[in-house]
Fold each of these.
Amino acid sequence: MFKQYLNNTKILSLAFLRDKETVFYVLVLPLLFMLIFGSLYSDGEGRHQDRVLLYFEDTATISQSEIEEVIESNQGLSYQHINSIEEGEQLLRDYEAETLLRVNGDGLEFSYNPARIQDNPAIEQQSMAIARELDIRKYNLETYLQTEIIDTGDFAGSSQFLSLFPGLIALGLASSGLFVIVELFIYHKEKGVLKRMAASPLSRNSFTFALISSRMPASLLSTALILVSSRYIFNVSFNINWFLFIPYIIIGTVIMMGLGALITLFATTADSGFQAASILLTVMIFFSGIYFPIEFLPSYFQQVSRFLPLTYLARGLQQIMGVSQLDPTSLAMETGGLLILSIALILVVSKKSSWVAD
Amino acid sequence: MLAIKNIFLKHLRKQLRDRYSIFWNLVFPLVLLTILALIFGGQTGEDISFDISIARPESVRDTSEENQSYAMIIDDVIRSIEESEDSRWFQFHHQDPEQSAEEFIAQEEEFLESGDRHLILKIPEGSLPEPDQIEIYRQPGSQLSNIAADVINSIVTEINREINIAEGNVSREQLIATTSRQIDVSLSNGEEDSFSMAEYLVPGIILFTFLSSGVEVLVGRISSMRARGILRRYFATPLKPIQYFAGILAFIIVLSIVQVLLIHGWSIFFFDINLDLFNFDFIFYMVFALIVSVSMGFMVLSLVKSKESVGVVTQALTYPMAFLSGIFFEVTGMTGILGLIVAINPMTYLVNGMRDILGVYPSPTSDLLNLIVPAIWMIGSIAISLVKFSWNPGGDS
């Protein structure tokens, strides 16, 4: 029985990894998105230094050297002198610079490109910091009330950039697990594979467990690829709780299989099952906070995210990888609840399904 | 002509019968437009409010009449925010009278961890003129918490400026007056207009549907029929390949027209924007963009023979081309290999050209490049297709 299971797992794992589309969706696509969104969200390599365009009017009372010194003291900024406001605005429109600083009399005017919606808040902060620093240097102003920002939790600090990687691992698990039950109970039935299996001495449970197990190497491989690539491409390392992480990868894959089982209950053909799973995966990508923070979505879309397992999977991985505060109770409750529900759904589908094509 | 019509109708019927194709080709672009406009356009602003706990000190040091405490100053600031229009952005949480400061802080720290609070501000005990420190506790995993911390930082900066003025260190007139403005990026009739993210996205989403029609729908259908040997059987009949090509091309054109109309209607209905999509220049450029996409689709079909590989290659081509072109968001800051992809990507130039023609955003690349780069891809793809394309690559069926 166990030998049957092992042999089947091996054969199905190899078949799974030989499938080019599967390899693309499980292994390549998360890496591709990591490169694209990682470069977008990272502040370091892969993005230009923020450039300030400087334009001094004849009436300017603040000297060029004062402003240049302040900008040079900020490592994230560089500057370029321009000859006219029109030239500066054109450079802003062409995305060649982040802000245009016009020095007029003893005032400063910062101009931004409204199309840079993601970057503008940070650019505005930097602009205000330039003005503040000029005041402090010029008049020796006191900083009476200082601020100290304290990050809660014992992790290094998070951002959309860091949250991306656990989200991409969750996406790899979703791609790996979501389609398997549809494949097992509808596609293989349509193709007559199950009928032939039923005629063989192979145990039904052994085949089912083997197929489920066959997805685990892909999930682990996808996870390893994300971790290694994030380390070497973006120089990111995580404070991973390995004792929880490895089991969570397996549990996460089973949870996504459970969602696939739910689809199987309603799908009539393999094609409709796969299509429904694809649509659900796309919806989950947008509403589970992998690429965009859930908090930025309208409240009605935030409600949608509460019903998506990928939201909890991504959140759980963030906690286990040290990106957000580990909350053992909610992690256990959410993961446990989803796991029980998933196993129940897989069992229901397994019992309900016939191995003979309709 | 009848043969072309029959091929066209066959593909149209298949499209209409398949609810999933309807979703991906007609509904999904609208969903994408809506989500991206809501997220990047900041149109969810009404839903955003910062929950901030104010932890006052148990006691205040040195509260003589002339030395105002920081706790009093911050109370005044909070009161003025609550009485202003900005109050909708903030929800301040204060300690209950029967609660000790320690109990309040412990309770609020739990709320901060659970996400029910975005910040805790621990107000210092000190008084002017001695410097002191305000502690801002944030939840770094929450984007709103990070933004709230930046906002509070800015408010504290303003407080310091006011204190410096009140202490006589500097006069208000002496301080550097700082203003900010957004540059005008609208090209419509030369009039200044405010920037709309939804308007910015509409040409991108149209281009995305063209890319999808050319590189996914067309390629998917031909490769599927090629793999199943249907095309080989077709061409054993009097049907000529050119007739089949015309029929499927007509289907792609009709599909694209429907997509454009749907996107246009949705942008009017949902976002109240009415771009002039039907001016001659834009129609010409849309046709050009569609031809580029279709020719790239044929290039894929020419270079990749098996149906399975075609699916992978189209996906591997579509995602980087869409995401690394500025269709959805601006990507000009990319360097290295990704920067190179942006620079050689025909979609980068097509979307710039489309936005420029519609007056949504002036093209950062020249008009010449917006024609030449996609044209090079188009000519290259057609040349490869002419040499390598086969309706029936042997042995694949």
Amino acid sequence: MDYEISLITTIGITVMFALSLNLITGFCGQISLGHAAFLGLGAYTSAMLCQAGMPFWLTLPLAMLVAGLLGVLVGLASLRVRADFLAITTMGVGFIFIGVVRQQEWMGGEMGVTGFPGSGLGKTGFMALCLALAALTAGLSLYIQRAWMGQVFKGIAEDEDTMRVLGIDVPRYKLAAFAIGTALAGAAGGLYAQNLKFIGPDSFGFVESVTVLSMVVVGGIGSVFWVVVAAAVLSALPGWFQFIGDYKLLVYGGLLFTMMRFSPHGLAGIAARFTKARTAPMPGASR
Amino acid sequence: MFFVELIAQSLVQGSIYALIALGLTLVYGLLRILHVAHASLFTLGAYIGVLTYNATGSMVLTLLAAMAVSGLSGVAMFRLAYQPILKQPPHVALIASIGLFIAAEECFRIIFGASGLSFANPPLQGQVQLFGGLQFKQAELAVMGGTALIIGMLGWLQTRTRIGVACQATVSDPQMAESFGIRLTMVRDLNFLIGSALAGFAGVWVALLNNLVEPTMGSVPSYKALAIIVLGGLGSVPGTLMAALVLGLVESFGTVYLGKVLDRNAIAFAFLIVVLMVRPQGLFAKR
């Protein structure tokens, strides 16, 4: 039972993390190649505050706050650069985060942080917390998607200039997408640190950023349901098949490429093709 | 003296960056694709180089083999991976490219082993004394000389030959170029061939300078080269060259003076982000 519990906990955290990126990249069309930095920032904030004696439940909102603040900063930077540059800028943010953490002794340096106090919830309780927060994130995503904000996000993803002409304050909505998405990633980071009981700079590198992007892309950029499915399956697969465990990166890379080459709208696109329920164009299909 | 040595080292580093980034710029200028998988051709060139040199012992043959294999693989990559998705929004090609790059790195690991290969007896290792007690390895001098030669040739090709002018026409307006009878596919093939061959050439020299070829040797150059073409103002060849040298300098001096706070990659990307905030169009672009 222990194995299943830890697997479900991991899936819950991964789903939450993937949904947080989906808000930025899926809904609002802003490609981020450094999202793991925000997971890391949340993880470090929560772990170090726990170590300083703060109760775990109190560190989560602070992890969200810190990650969200950096997210707004990156969002501000993103307003100045055009789309092609944004991917590289966010990639740079990821490298800077790792580079800084690696050189800071008080953040554990290369060795990472370990031995911080637990959540006091027990394994099952912690699993329930992770699942509840993941479900909450999914609910929030669905709510945003249907709300005015989600419509504007979709408009920005499809045609930014038209939205500007319509009198929409595009920068404000972009910043909102970054703030919400990165804050949620920060919360996922707090759970991540608590789940593994160990964090180091290598857990939040470029590969992790691409992994979470692959979940969003394989699911179908912008589709909440299929992103949840993709994140759950992709995070569970390595444990189920030892073959995939060893060749994990090959499978991720291959999946990313195959999806983009043959079905740019991901699983959601495939599903839509089968059901023919598709009347409006897929979200995220800009131009 | 220390100062001069630093500058000399950054010239070597800058030459290598320039060789890799040139191919990326050519591809970006033509197709507006951020070609992350370019670095896998650099790694491929390095592997082919080491294998050929250990088998034949001839440096000329080694360079030719590496450039031919990398160049042709580049064309194959364009035909099989990019050409079918040119009509999709730009993030599709970017993500496909990242997937391809990750899968390629894993293939290198599976085929050639994780520990890497090295030259049985590496050539051009002797030290050369230059003016003022400045010392270079023969291989380092060869890299700088080779880079200058190749760039000179490319410049001549671009401005003085029919095919070069055709390339320039295609960059500035593909439709117009096509209606004037320029075969777009031929121009694109040629750009991938040349750019990828340069990456293979760089791979051999990096392999020789470190006397080591690893599956992951392409990761760092891949991200750095992206930073360089963004710095140079995407798609501009002279800008890319200048940016490569500038980044070489910034890294060498940054590591000495900021090494305690940031690692090498973080310095490069911090520089990139600062520049982008001040000049969003890149260092050397003319708007």
